[in-house]
Amino acid sequence: MVSNNNNNNNDDGLGERFGGYTVKQRLREEIESPFRNVRLYFFGVSTASAMLALYFSSLAALKGYMGGFADTPPLEESLQSCAINIGAAATCAFLTYRDYKAGQANLERISKGGALARLRLSPADGTTNSLLTMKEYRRAKRVIIAAGGAEYVSQLALALTSDQRSDDNTLVQALQEADVMIVPVLLENNTGASLNVGNTISSWQATTPTEQDRNFDLTRANSVVAFPNGPNQWYEYLQSEIETCQTQGFDVLEKGFTITVKKNGRILRRATGQPQWNAFLQTMEVMDGSKFGMPGDSEKYGG
């Protein structure tokens, strides 16, 4: 299994890396938007043509203003040509830049999707002695990455492994039926300067129940929980998400955040705080079901 992960890494890095992206990533972006390069060429050439025409119309306008030149068009006509060429150049340049930025954003999404697929996990139930990757959950599981401080991880563990209401906690069963896997990620601030990913397993196992947490048993959630493996790799992926939360004024250690990954490996949504289980489970088949999610779900859900 580990050798397969290495092959995946080599495959994702296939070809020479230029401009921050691999050849494979650029080819995938071209497949997703096959006419982008055509549009970039067309609008780029149109911009250059408009700028060249503007150069000559400006010379004609200058000659008309100075006077004394034969075969020079009237000044008013030259100025009108300048205005038309300026408008054409600005429009084509804007369209070129917009398409270029859209392509860069798509490349960034593809690159981050590849980084997400390579993240390593250790299933809590110990069904395998080898590490798994996020890529191996595609088509089979929807994954919720729940990142936060030690108290956040503890609250998540209690919500899954204890009866906090008058009736029995059936959340784990509901998550299993919805093909959902939970990945808690412990964030720490040991250096005081920046955050890092800590030992999530130890933090999870150190969870202490209160009087309201009846029938507490951490093993109850083993079938729907996997722990991150490789803290540096996980932090590199989560860094931009952490920075986004911080710029919006959220305390990622106290409040935490979640990233929901669909069966096809794409991000469904991002949210702060603990997962909202009821709303999540009730809407999952609409947001990532047989009609809008992975093909093959119709056999299970009758879609």
Topology at a glance:
Elements (H helix, E strand, L loop, with lengths): L1 H11 L10 H10 L3 H31 L8 H44 L1 E4 L8 E2 L8 E7 L1 H12 L9 H7 L2 E9 L7 E2 L2 H6 L20 E4 L1 H17 L9 E5 L5 E6 L4 H12 L8 H5 L2
Parallel strand pairs: 3-4
Antiparallel strand pairs: 1-2, 1-6, 3-7, 4-5, 7-8
Helix pairs in contact: 2-4, 3-4
The tally of beta strands, per DSSP, is 8
How large is the share of residues in beta strands?
5-15%
- Enumerate the spans where pLDDT stays under 50 for 5 or more consecutive residues: 1-13
Distance between the termini: 34 Å
Q: Largest sheet, if any?
A: 5 strands, mixed
Mean pLDDT: 83
Shape: elongated
The DSSP helix count reads: 10
Spatial strand sequence of the major β-sheet:
5-4-3-7-8
Question: Which descriptors would you attach to this protein?
Answer:
13% strand, alpha+beta, 303 residues, three-stranded antiparallel β-sheet
Provide a quick synopsis of the model.
With 303 residues, the protein is of the alpha+beta class.
Could you characterize what this model shows?
By secondary structure, the chain is α+β, with helices and mostly antiparallel strands. Helix content is 51%, strand content 13%. It has ten helices and eight strands. It has helices at residues 2-12, 23-32, 36-66, 75-118, 150-161, 171-177, 200-205, 231-247, 277-288, 297-301; strands spanning 120-123, 132-133, 142-148, 180-188, 196-197, 226-229, 257-261, 267-272. The chain has a five-stranded mixed sheet with strand order 5-4-3-7-8. A three-stranded antiparallel sheet has the order 2-1-6, covered by helices on one side. Helix 2 crosses helix 4 and helix 3 (36-66) packs antiparallel against helix 4. The longest helix is centred in the first third of the chain and has 44 residues, at 75-118. It is elongated and about 100 Å long. 25% of the residues are buried. Mean pLDDT is 83; it is low at 1-13.
